[in-house]
Amino acid sequence: MQSTSKAGASRSLDARIQDVFEEPACEMNRGKDANVRKKGCSKPLTPGAAAGGCAFDGAKIVLQPITDVAHLIHAPLACEGNSWDNRGTASSGPMLWRTSFTTDLTELDVVMGHAERKLFKAIREIKETYAPPAIFVYSTCVTALIGDDIEAVCKRAAEKFGLPVVPINAPGFSGSKNLGNKLAGEALLDHVIGTVEPDDAGPYDINILGEFNLSGEFWLVKPLLDRLGIRVRACIPGDARYRDIASAHRARAAMMVCSTALINLARKMEELWDIPFFEGSFYGITDTSQSLRQIAELLVRKGADPEILERTEALIAEQEAIAWKKLAAYRSRLQGKRVLLNTGGVKAWSIAHALMEIGVEIVGTSTKKSTAEDKERIKEILKEDHRMFESMGSREMYDILAEHKADIMLSGGRTQYVALKAKTPWLDINQERHHPYAGYEGMVELVRQIDLAIHNPIWSEVREPAPWDAQPAMKEELQSTQSESETFPASQISSAPPPAASAGGEES
């Protein structure tokens, strides 16, 4: 099934990338005129620029948590890697999303032009074996370079097998992980959202965009919405189902959790289906309460009964009282403790604000992947610009921690060893973590984990000087003992013959 429209597919990807760069809601484009905006909102890529995560990786991050879909990677085997529990997202039901599917292309497939035929057969095998509601097919560097037209193959397979087969055209070389996030949102708009009409749409339906349900933390928030009678029609992508996303166009309002990833999806859904959205956070007590209020206000604007505002305030008062009572036990233990935040995006300000509520001082917070609004909020919260940094080198980070300018560092797994080398407590705040930190209960859990890390007795032990450094005489004694142990009397040397030589003439 060799395609005849490969050049057209390539141009389509270029046009899509340019469209994403012209995103009017992107912070780099605000305030520009139409001509300047067309130049794009991203610097040209240089070799190695996508080393921290390519476009394919970004698309997979956004779409893989759709749990009942089969995710098929059209590539050599190594492009897929290990999909099991890849980012700590959680599912309340289907587990198909964790199974790796790949066409496992070889050099022979590439040379002989069998790649598209192999993709079609893989789609058929998945459909017959697993019967998923949909199959997502991802292009990669190799298949994009050889010109495979996955859109044509997916269209033919969908007609043949009678189920949605969605092409995700985000090869790794096309850009960074963040670009892949946005291209995944475009694929949902083009092929998924709006394809199913629900028969139960109501005035209290909302979408949550950019929420990944890491460690199941959205499950700490959803019960609050349930108590208010608010239904999450689609959480994209955390613990999502294909039909939920396909009918997401009938929601009345939306909350954007991570605008860096899916701002294009939120804006276009507002333009196409009149779904207003706001950017909020479920990290911290104040921010969780404010997000609940804004959801209720948007729903009232869209025709919901105004009494939901009173019920929301009652729920907030109840939950805040419970949370503050639990946090009181930690306030005296953490008052004045200093935290270095090395994360990004919405967490750069939401986690900082949450910790400051209980008296913790923020030494610094990163602004990597943060939008212009994120940075403005950080300035409001910290009051001082010098505590914001775009990126921090390992040496600079180590100096801050080694000089005890911070009592703990909150970051991702990549920088944990900097903290451990500086003999400073460290807590995982990124996607690999094992504890949920969203909502009121999540805030209490975050503070509890920080308290456990800071007051762990191991840190006082490892910071003590070694016995031989504290007592020079002991060091001399140890050196003397070591010297004696390396000297063997001739009587203790074995007189046994050397081992026999092997057949090849070398010692065995």
From TrEMBL:
Domain of life, per UniProt, equals Bacteria
Q: Where is the sequence biased in composition, kind Low complexity?
A: 479-495
Q: Transcription regulation among the record's keywords?
A: no
Source organism of this protein record: Rhizobium tropici
Q: Which family does it belong to?
A: Belongs to the NifD/NifK/NifE/NifN family.
The UniProt entry, under PANTHER family, shows: NITROGENASE IRON-MOLYBDENUM COFACTOR BIOSYNTHESIS PROTEIN NIFE
Write out the ranges of the annotated region (Disordered): 465-508
The task this protein performs is described as: This protein may play a role in the biosynthesis of the prosthetic group of nitrogenase (FeMo cofactor).
> Where does the record place the Nitrogenase/oxidoreductase component domain?
54-452
InterPro entries hit by this protein: Nase/OxRdtase_comp1 (IPR000510), Nase_comp1_CS (IPR000318), NifE (IPR005973), NifE-like (IPR049939)
Q: Kindly tell me the pathway this chain contributes to.
A: Cofactor biosynthesis; Fe-Mo cofactor biosynthesis
Xref: Pfam families: Oxidored_nitro
Query: Per its record, how is this protein called by name?
Result: Nitrogenase iron-molybdenum cofactor biosynthesis protein NifE
Record GO terms (molecular function): nitrogenase activity
Q: Which UniProt keywords apply?
A: Nitrogen fixation, Plasmid
Entry annotated with the keyword Zinc-finger: no
Query: Which GO biological process annotations does it have?
Result: protein-containing complex assembly
